[in-house]
């Protein structure tokens, strides 16, 4: 009960398919992120859940109730947009009390105060939106949606207008609010770090479809498509070929070397395969690793210090550029320079194939 089901939903605008046979099951009380590049159909999906847009085909249900055809205000759903859309002439408290008042609820102001407490905006209840910062206005917008006690709260890039620091802070706060109220949050973003930070489940969308869905750590560790491997963090990818199998491993020729991928970590079991390994899983050294196996010779092209890590760009024998992150545990160790011949090495358990 209270679960959201998007069941084979397609949305065609004239001759353009914005959402393509989308199926998602979102359990009640989860923090679910829809992540994807601009134009992949995220907003269209939310608008269909909200009832602002009708699917061309397919059904949307909350629990056993089919929402198809019901009006937006009849749905147990509220939306928070990037533009806060607060009423400028009303105080914060009256903005939040607006929905309950319109429904004739006698305790509208008490409900508004409760919602404002939840987003820690009690002190600002008497102000007008114009007297608030962007982050504070966004909190009011969240309170104004929560006061209606929806079963599902839709958030469409709600932090998009905030600067980076405030955004990081609001990510943690919004997640805290969701845990406290226990409602289903569907959070749309094109920011992979935001999705991974906030959500217990992430669906990666591309061209109107879900490419992969799951717990953020699982998506990051084991991407099943090259799109996901590149969209969620960085990946070193190489065109490879499966040349043999050895126990639980595939033996792959890639980037001018031979490397292993555990069979369970590859969507491909023979022939052409795209080999992948994350930059922070690769060790870089000017000495050949002792347990050779998953290693390759490389030439340093660029070294940049990012604070948390040093980022190396290197070329591997196939001519591709790979990236390596090395944590700055000991800055004095960072002695590699462009032009240096180095060895890269990783454990096969960190490689993946798609
Ligand atoms: P996102 O939110 O992921 O950036 P949208 O859902 O807004 O993507 O849009 C998906 C695609 O559908 C885009 O190519 C967009 O131009 C198109 N689209 C969205 N709304 C309409 C509309 N009302 N009419 C025609 N095309 C639309
Ligand atoms: Mg959008």
Automatic annotation (TrEMBL):
<dbReference type="GO" id="GO:0005524">
    <property type="term" value="F:ATP binding"/>
</dbReference>
<keyword id="KW-0547">Nucleotide-binding</keyword>
<dbReference type="GO" id="GO:0043190">
    <property type="term" value="C:ATP-binding cassette (ABC) transporter complex"/>
</dbReference>
<keyword id="KW-0813">Transport</keyword>
<dbReference type="GO" id="GO:0016887">
    <property type="term" value="F:ATP hydrolysis activity"/>
</dbReference>
<keyword id="KW-0067">ATP-binding</keyword>
<dbReference type="GO" id="GO:0022857">
    <property type="term" value="F:transmembrane transporter activity"/>
</dbReference>
<protein>
    <submittedName>
        <fullName>Polyamine-transporting ATPase</fullName>
    </submittedName>
</protein>
<feature type="domain" description="ABC transporter">
    <location>
        <begin position="4"/>
        <end position="232"/>
    </location>
</feature>
